[in-house]
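Give me structure tokens for this 597-residue protein.
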Amino acid sequence: MADYKAPVKDMQFILENISRMPQLAQLATFEDATPDMISAILEEAGRVSAEVIAPTNVVGDEQGVKLENGTVKIPDGFAQAYQQYAEGGWGSLQFDPEYGGQGLPYSLSTSVMEMWQSANMSWGLCPLLSQGAVEALYLNGSDELKNAYLPNMVSGEWTGTMNLTEPGAGSDLSVIRSKAVPEGDHYLISGQKIFITWGDHEMADNIIHLVLARLPDAPAGVRGISLFLVPKFLVSENGELGERNDVEVASLEHKLGIHASATCVMAFGENAGAVGYLIGQEGKGLACMFTMMNNARLAVGLQGVAISERAYQQALWYAGDRTQGKAVGFKEEGPILRHADIRRMLMTMKSFTEAGRALAYDACGSLDFAHALEDKELAGKEKARAAYLTPIVKGWCTEVAQEVTSLGVQIHGGMGFIEETGAAQHFRDARILPIYEGTNSIQALDLVGRKTLSDNGVAAESVMEEISVALAQASESARFKEAAGKMQSALDVAKSVTAQLLSESADNEYFSGAVAYNYMMMMGTLCGGWQLLRSGVAAEDKQAQGDSDPYLEAKQLTALFYVDQVLPRYLSYSAVVTTGSDSIMAFTDEHLEAAFS
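Here you go.
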């Protein structure tokens, strides 16, 4: 089984050439993000991920988590790995120095987070959710709450969770039933939440739950939902931990993958009521929680990249180690890496992974610019750009992760179906990604509805204009001229399909919902090619300046492979969009049930 090694070189390349880190470092907010600082952080994070966290991956998958006497017991090595994570200050990279953060770019923190997720996705979910909770509290909480809770959450001494889903209220949060009753300076929370990632554990001294609930007089629907901070242990005025709050783990879910992540059913207020504190305004809970959700959606897209990277490294190692037959064109037996179809699968894995990485980092870079730019108009454009790319990052990167991890199993042949190689775990772990933090159907509807139809295609047009500029630059290169032409054809189709989406959605109420998934996959495929072509041109420029690193040649070949072998998929997605909703909506409930009559 291959050891994990963080792809630091590719991460640095993307940060420099795609997510615009040098330009960010010129802004006062991020002046500490120098090349030396970035390199040092990535190198050390790579060491920690490989030496401390990655060794817990297989152990965690085999041991899983257990509920004993109301407490979640975690696999061997998890607590020690988390202690090193917290002591190293890794959870504080992108947060405000006022609360103990380091004030570095979110896009840099994203690179580090990718390493944790590749090393052990089950373990990595704990810091991922914690950072989302910090973000939600920082942007929406009162000064009193922030001062009381953020320093320990930023430092990693306390972790955070997100409590949305309930039995009978999955993606539709408008029907949640958890209650919050005012009592003095706090509220008493009662109700049950399901699918709560790392809802309990013993890695940190306290767990801060962010919980959606309704006040007694709240109206029905989403406008009646408020957000509350509910600590596992109550915190005194001087910051010391007090008695256990009325929060318990009712049970643990037994899952297909991520066995070592505690997915809990949480019971609030089974006795006297769980003490909670309002975050933001009453009735605005969903808006506050979406601060965390948007952060989490980008992070889950990044998990798709991370598990793809791990599967690719495993498959590449196996393909070089496994001897099987004579490949066409070779006279002697050798590693299966020589077989053309193995190389096709490996290159597909590699190109999807690197395209997703660039797309995710680029979206996070826009969030950094939106935060740091003094020009409000430019900052607004960056925010809109990130918002448009977010459902593509979450949806497309996690969908292709299913293919990448499946190819990893295929390359191993029969051994891929055997747990001891590790390939199967990546396949199992990846399967949750299109589901949680908003299913990919929701991401597709978000892209089509909130991000395209609502602004009459302005954000989509802006991104496609960026792609046009990149293609014009690529067409000046002899090596990439043909690839740029193929990308231009894909872009022309995307523009035409977007125009059709805008026009037909106005006349057919079913159209946008029926075509949303394929539209998302079309745009993801296009944006993946855009990012790889940008990367290829940047690599060619560095070569022209005398840099002979083989990595630069590989980067260009990856871009060319994607355009030739992967990009043509946009035609099937776009063709489905143009056919509209008739065949879907004509198939009635009666037709669906006919086979069972």
